[in-house]
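Example 4.3 (complexes with small molecules)
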Amino acid sequence: MYVSFFEDLKKEDVDIAGGKGANLGELTQAGIPVPKGFVITSETYKEFMESTGIQSKVLALLKKLDVNDNSALQKASKDVKKIIIETEIPDSIKLSIIEAYNALCSRIGINDAFVAIRSSATAEDLPEASFAGQQDTFLNIKGIDSVIEYVKKCWASLYEARAIFYREENNFDHDKVFIAVVVQQMVDSEKAGVMFTVHPSTGEDTALIEGSWGLGEAVVSGTVTPDTYWVDKKTEKLLDISIAEKNTMFIKESDAGNTIQVDVPEDKKNERVLTDEDLSKLVQMGKRIQEHYKSPQDTEWAFQNGELNMLQSRPITTLGDAKNDGSEELEMNIISKGLGASPGQIAGSVKIITSIDELDKIQKGDILVTTMTTPDMVPAMKRANGIITDEGGVTCHAAIISRELGIPCVVGTANASSILDENQIVTIDGKKGLVYEGKLTTAEEKPIDISSTKVLAAPTTEITATEVKVNVSMVEATEKARATDADGVGLLRTEHMMLACGVHPKKFILDGREDELIQIIYDNVLIVADAFYPRPVCYRTLDAPTDEFQTLEGGEDEPHEHNPMLGWRGLRRELEEPEILKAEFKAIKKLINQGYTNMTIMLPLLQHPDELRQAKALATEVGLIPHEDIEFGMMVETPASAIIIEDFIEVGLDFISFGTNDLTQYTLAVDRNNELVANLYKESHPAVLKLIKHVINKCNEAGVATSVCGQAGSVPAIVEQLVELGITGVSANTDAVADVRKTVFRAEKKLLLNAARKQL
Ligand code: PEP
Ligand code: MG
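Answer. The structure with phosphoenolpyruvate bound is encoded below.
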């Protein structure tokens, strides 16, 4: 079957119609008003590639390719796409597409109707990156020749450089991945936008609707700041509204059909887009769709001549974790509460770990419950579906590692390890910090593959002046971090590299095996430097807390400190163990010598400018000249360093980055790992913000770049304030990059708008 109309497709038909196509079929069959259309099936693509003989040509071209040679990769991608686009489609296939397009036109009642053409990825369990083109959408296409041309463009998108790279690196056969194409009546809307059928970050039963003038692309791409409406789903009451100044919109350019971006007419810029009646229609539709799918949905809608059309619906999985609408939650028994440390809802069987000898108990899909995770538990954490701890706050070990692994996590429950039973089935809500008895039907059961990019929000395309980078704490999660399309790595933590090798770094030095230590650091950092090249990667020198390094071979002599958080860690420790710091500098120097000029260095936990001076001298001693060979910066993590930042600037800095996890705990005297005071732990505390503001001002005056890489950089509300304060970069957790970029984009637009208004 070359083509299939929406009426004949169901959500199970992903293999044939791809995710988008199957979904549009499902909505059509459910009686939801969806613009008419059909899908050119994945089989058709396959037959095109095989019957024309180009599949083997393409494979031959890629066989010799070294995907790590970027220019060769780009060229191969270009060549393959050219082959696909220039190859004639066999008559039998072409005829089916012509017939389907003509049938669609007669259903619409217009000859040569305008259509949208979209690629639709099959095999949803494959990571998004293997289908680089799945985001491709071509609007306002008209006439069969153009339809054929754009269908081929969608097929060719399967060979974008990123997709080739991903498939090669992950051993997916290029000829086993297929793509379908959706051809759909174009809606020429007067207003359009998106609707989340529950609040996307809290999961409350409130519809969140964003709308603006013209075609929906302006809202979806973030080109315009839309109006936002919060509507109570039960009463349909408008709870809150934010009317934005909507300066731009996309429209169809008369008969030519091009999609163009134009200014919104003056009188409509500040006009409310959606009437109460529109909102009521939307909310009712949202309820219908959610009921149909039995899960909250992220939808796209458009009004054409007052008629509501639904363009897309997908489960809310990436924006926050609002996978249920809250109603189910009420029926379920909450058995434990803590802090939401890593978002997502997941169910599994409880395995209580009281000592590291018990780690083998954790099988794929279990819920690891323990007092507090330790670095030795990381292999078991990777197998687990979710993590629950008695102790800890949102920046503790369990929280940081879970976020990086993409595993839901609740920390600081006080007693989960004593009140939960072994093998009991529970569901974790890692956003709200709740543990439910039994399995919530909307929760997933599948263990998460950390190398997969599937759990991520699609990379956003907004270009922001403020750099948006990503944090990497475990080298294994590099690919997932890279798939965020971040502007680089704003924090590459070293601790896990050391913990993963099982040997204390000082043991290498004591045993005269410095070379081995350098090689371990080099090998690990290389993976990240290479994946992100030429985007910058910021290597943070070792911040080894004594309590976490005790279990390593050679860590037996680590001091037992009363409060390791205030103790022998960070740069102060490395200045007393300079051979380790020098080995790190040597590893980075080796990378730079091999062309990885995208490396930068950042020092942790400084409290006096002399520390910076000494570290720079050690770098110089091993031939790595700060500011010449490499950009050199420091974390601002102590109130002391924030208050006298001018003195550090005088010693010489290219950049600083706020380590808000530590800056908050030291400013507020709140141990970040102590759940008893977690309610007082607030990065947005005015004192913390005041220190940050002071540092940003001084750095901006001196031309020193500023960034944030603590957890605050992953919290959109704080990021917005930091952009307003003049920060020049942000580094977020992998799961937060897309949201943070959107926040930065809007915050920058707001600033520009306010500046422009002031000039009026
Ligand atoms: C911080 O303190 O904010 C930070 C990023 O460093 P770490 O969490 O590794 O201490
Ligand atoms: Mg820190």
